[in-house]
Amino acid sequence: MSESIPVLSIIMLSPFVGALILSIEPQRSKNIIRITTLLFSFISLIGSLYLFINYDQALGGFQYIEILPLAPSLGITYFLAVDGISVTLVLLTAIILVTGVFASWEIPQRSKEFFILLLLLSTGVFGVFVSLDLFIFFLFYELAVLPMYLLIGIWGSSTKIKAKGIFSRAISSTGLGSKEYGAMKLTLYLLFGSAFILVGILAIYSYSGLETFNYIKLNENLLSPSLQKWIFFLFYFGFGTLAGVWPLHTWSPDGHASAPTAVSMMHAGVLMKLGAYGIIRLGMGLLPDAAVSFSFLIGAIAVINIVYGAFGAMWQKDLKYVVAYSSVSHMGIVMLGAATLNEMGLNGSVLQMFSHGIMTGLLFALVGLIYEKAHTRDISKMGGFAKRMPAIATFFLIGSLTSLGLPGLSGFVAELLVFLGAWASPSPWWLIPAVFGVFLTAVYMLRVNKWIFFGKSNDSTPLHDAHGFEWLAPIILCVILILVGIYPKLLLDTIDVGVVEFLQNFH
Amino acid sequence: MIMIPNMFMPISLEIIIITGILVIFFLDLFLSKRKNQIISTLTLAFLIITFVFSFSGLVHGSIFSNTFVSDPFAITLKQIFILATALAVLGSINHTEIKLLNREGEYYQLLLFTLLGMMITVSSRELLLLFLGFELMSIPLYILSAFSKENIKSAEGAIKIFLFGTVSSALLLLGIGIFFAATGTTSWMPDYHINGLTDPLAVLALIILLCGFGFKIAAFPFQFWVPDTYEAAPTPFVAFLSVAPKITGFGILFRFLFEALGPLVTKWSIYALWISALTMIVGNLLALPQRNIKRLLAYSGIAHIGYILLGLASGTKFGIEMSIFYFIAYLFANMGAFLVAEAVNRSSGSDNLDSFTNLWKRSSFLSISMLVFILSLGGIPFVIGFWAKLYIFLAAAKSGHLLIVLLGALMTVVALFYYLNVARIMYIDKGGNEDLKKVEVPLNLSLSIGISAILVVALGLYPRFVIDIAKKAMSTFV
Question: Which residue of A has its CA nearest to B379?
């Protein structure tokens, strides 16, 4: 409990300060811009590593507390703290931020604005994970949503999708496939979700009668079960939109596919976890009775996520859409773990958040590289790339194997924990479609690998492998995947402390 | 300083403004060279004097048998009006249509007259005085709306505001008459219970009066005049029109509903909620198809009034405080947005959204300011509009009206669609090559836009400042 250095504020505000400094730098010096961004992201990374290593597992609970009253009459405080669960997620965010900066090293135009927006986005995300005051939580959540629009709209990539069927004229007039469409859809969907979250937060505020937004105090004074039920529904609906819960996930494929690489990494890797974190922390933490009564439903929808996402991914011809749908599918595993409401399942859920975050970051980074080299996202135009891009092929294969849960990589540990938790839960029948989903993941992932990297090559144009800074992001991420896969204790000890404390809500 | 007898101190702000009007009137008759600079500077000077003087404790008190009261609420509102007028004057300097036929003197005088009317209105605790101030405010607005003589649409817009306005004044008079017949009084005190308020005749009077007031704040279903008038009138004036009369209307509603009809709060708050909800819906939905920036901002302004009414409808002191907060946020963001539209118009000659294409390249100052204003209007964090929206929702939630908070939040999402559209046009759309010439922004506009933008961001980072202002305004209300 280091009260002297406000570590959490440093981690969270370092990107913000970086953005401010960037805004006064001249556009021309591209290197200074990139290095400044890297510097401030590194500060966050070092901060989160420090946080993670120094988290006192014996003590447990919320540590690194920082409290500053902002509007005492309304009950709003600047209240930051982390427990075992959030400290892992802060680490994830920092890793994805740094690797995202590496992956965006060669942004062609307006790099200054790009990095400013990326850093603002990161501040918002960090803020959500460390806030324990509901008002501040919502503030940072909203902060994270808006830069998305500009990031995707300006630096994203469009693709031509032909709408088919009787509504094809109407559909194509919306601009389907263009980056503006993806950007607007994503932003509006997420803001739509945030409307429900806001009402939920205000409902808890007004019904608790405590005149405070303080999570700890609200946690001690729970509402009546009937009230909890519909507020939980609001939270599930709102956060579920962000988490990609079926059927509110439809922003995700279009959004991720149109987004530039670093934004997809941050979004699929971290923001979707924000949604799941919101459901767990706010939904289940503050409304435990409702969570117990809804647990079957959450689990069932999670299983639908897994299978639907997998089938969706199988069908895709555009590489980015494959990865996007696989994210939807893996978020299903996260939600399944959360729905089990037991120690193993929740451990698996948080670990899956971390593992999938890294993995999807890796996959999107590689997809970005492939797109740069081959200038296409269409799988049918690819083939035999392994010969000319052996490194990228290897990294992609490692990512895919994590995705389908090969032992030795982090995905296996996470998925196994979730499944064991599901088996120990009141509705073990969830397991059958869930494991089927794993099988489907293997199918589409291996097929995609085959189509892109192996087999006959269509093109004779030279394709380069990764060079220079482009190596850094995939290498770092792969190493983490392997490390956590072989020695998951690194993360699980801390996560377990957080989970055990969290489950005390549910005696 | 001019010697104002102690008895007249509460009305001293108005006296200063009247002095200003007279000075400008005479100068207008005699000056011919550099008229524009002198008169506009003088107007600004009087506004600043009034603003500074309003902070002194001397202005408190009431006069004319307590029918004209200068309490913190009124003073705060007057300060807001003065800020709005100052920004409008700053934006109007060197405006071609206003300078046409050497009419600037009249323009500034009319602005000051409207300001005077607004100031009287929010200070009045008596219906006839209120009516006086109301008319004094409205009639210059009609004339100012018609100032763009060369534009045929201007006549249409002016006729609309004129007709709607005079009908609402007539309704107001009718309501006052019936109110008097029902209750035997036209004035009220905060802690004085008016007899006969549950009389059906009084209820009728109430409804008619609310119709009259509703026009000025452009609430549903009285908002029809707004888009056409905004489109046609000179843009700096529209900036003023979009903010100041609405705040006046709100002030009237507060005085009347809270002070006069305080005990009946549960009865009228349900109607206020309905009007608020409908206004939010209508304003936001009708803004979606707009291709003209002024019409878009007009409808978005209607939607914002819906949010402010939500604060009013929550029926608590906190709700009013948050409405005042929202007004301050709305003032700078909205006027700023209109002034940016004016700047773009001066360069491109059109108010169409397409003239904003590639603005990020043509003028980074304008595009960033517009982005800041859009973010504030849309309610995105770290600019003051976010806090305003959130606090209004908080006020409504505290009174238990959660469903309408959900509606408000969902309508915000709709609003963000058209706000982000503007951002998209500025930053993302490619447009043709002829859209790439730089936009020259005259000094007065860049000053006013800059001040507004800085305030929107600064107050957003430190909202406590505005909360304190709002709380101070309501400090004498129980």
Answer: A142
